Amino acid sequence: MSHVSGNYTYDFVRLDPTWDNSAETGIQSLVVGLTCAFTGVDSQGNEVNVSQYIDGATGFSPYISYDYLTGNIEDIANEYASGQNWWYTLRDNVSGRVDHPVPVSNFPYPHSGEPHTHPPADATDYNEGHDA
Prior knowledge:
flat, single chain, 36% strand, alpha+beta
């Protein structure tokens, strides 16, 4: 067996601001979504591509202007992700999915009543508290 090797990449895939009211006088909140992806090889030497997404919302009090948000979006998004510890949480979750048990993809059961069940009699006969 070899060791796991590859690269982690992070991308903000969702940045959805919300106005404070219908007059659009300030930005009240921002939903931040981040994806972490691993591309490389697992300990068996197989190529793997694994990713995970997380999101959350941050609020602004006092509200911020649209121009301030667009001019500082990189800092705001990165500070939020860091404050939530997303870099390490996502990396650890993705790492746990690189080397893991893999389901058998062509296992033919269960289907069409197979395998047949053989429950004990006391698991199929229930009259307790009921009129027979």
